[in-house]
Amino acid sequence: MSRPQFDPATYAAQLDEKKQRLIELLAPFAAPAPEVFESPREHYRLRAEFRLWREGEDRHYAMFEAGDKHTPILLDDFPIASARINELMPRLKAAWQASKVLSFKLFQVEFLTTLAGDALITLCYHRPLDAAWQAEAEKLAAELQVSLVGRSRGKRLVIGRDHALEALQVAGRTYRYRQPEGAFTQPNGEVCQKMLGWAFEALGERDDDLLELYCGNGNFTLPLATRVRKVLATEISKSSVNAALANLDDNGIDNVTLVRLSAEELTEALNEVRPFRRLAGIDLKSYEFGSVFVDPPRAGMDPDTCELTRRFGRILYISCNPETLAANIAQLSDTHKVTRCALFDQFPYTHHMEAGVLLERR
Question: What's its EC (predicted)?
Fold first, then answer.
């Protein structure tokens, strides 16, 4: 993980720069001015991972500038990370400094925290983990009041839960999420809530059905499902699918059918190119899709999936890469126009930004 250039005094200027960049990217499509959703200036990042750098008998949290893996930046705290991570960092370090069992061959530490106050720590080792390690780790987890995961090659030992518990507020309702260790979660919780609220409002109250691609752990699925008759959602990651199913059950949402397929495979299924056993018992023709929601990886939608979304009257698109978003919009612009646009500052002090658009059929 490279170190961002943290300077709260520059926040307003860097956010305006991102806004102008998004406006320029979407100008060819006559997009309206973006709604801008700010981040907290510090303690906004709920996830963090650190390599450990050894000096003598001591190990220190370390990060590196992009492209330089040989010059460590040693850290005692990390202002962009959540207050919970900053509270845990010195206590965890003191624990491994005091215990050879915990520190031996330890090379990486990962923190996952939530707005709800939960925390999960992953310790990564270049050695097998044994009963002595587990006994020490159990004491440490109890002392820090966290769940703890130990990882070594091909092995994982879990103390407590293998997921963190989150609670997010959308339109006056609290949605509860299990966020699995090692799976993707939105790093900026406060901005994530704003994204969910914007998507909820942009979708609106509907009397038809929603297709969702790349649903992850159900982050958007839960609130959006309350706006439509029913949802067909897809995700390829098995751990994310399992988390999404648990999250749907935990929140009492029963109008979602979730299928473990890639977006490309679902495109083939809807085009009747070939059947899929995972769709057995699901009548695709029973759905009356009025909208499609997509939150693809940085590469954006592949051309065939992009063509699939053209079928729908409304395309709600969340993007972590506005360049590929613009390329996808270019493919769709002859049939759809951008009617809403938003900038979500998930990653302050970096060039990365999250954007959202609503495209509606011309």
Answer: 2.1.1.35
pLDDT one-digit tens code per residue, 168-217: 999 999 999 999 998 889 999 999 999 999 999 999 999 999 999 999 99
Domain final position from 130, 164, 198: 164
Tell me which residues of the chain have a pLDDT lower than 70. Answer: 1-4
DSSP state of 258: E
Q: Distance between CA 274 and CA 132 in Å, rounded?
A: 52
Do 103 and 36 fall into the same domain? no
Paired tokens of 251? 């929140």
Handedness of CA 114, 118, 119, 120 (dihedral sign): negative
Residue 93: which domain range? Answer: 47-164
Query: What's the confidence (pLDDT) of residue 255?
Result: 98
Q: Same domain, yes or no, for 208 and 327?
A: yes
- How far from the centroid of its chain's Cα atoms is residue 318's Cα? 12
Same domain (yes/no): 217, 289: yes
Is 186 assigned a ligand-binding role in the annotation? yes
Are 114 and 229 in the same domain? no
CA 258 – CA 210 distance, rounded (Å)? 12
Sheet holding 336-344, edge to edge: 35-37, 336-344, 354-361, 314-319, 289-294, 209-213, 231-234, 256-259
Residue 214 counted as an annotated binding residue: yes
Q: What amino acid occupies position 362?
A: R
Residues 6+ apart with CB under 8 A from 32: 338, 339, 340, 341
The reply to whether 14 sits in an annotated binding site is no
Give the separation between CA 13 and CA 39, rounded to whole angstroms: 13
The Cα–Cα gap between 20 and 12 comes to: 12
Q: How far is CA 352 from CA 18, 19, 23, 269, 320, in A?
A: 9, 12, 15, 34, 8
Q: pTM of the predicted model, to two decimals? A: 0.93
- The verdict on whether residue 247 carries a ligand-binding annotation is no
Length of the chain counted residue by residue: 362
Return the active site residues: 320, 354
What is the CA 188 to chain-centroid distance, rounded?
A: 9
Q: How far is CA 43 from CA 10, 62, 85, 184, 288, in A?
A: 16, 18, 9, 19, 43
Q: According to the annotation, is 302 in a ligand binding site?
A: no
**121 and 98 both lie in a single domain:** yes
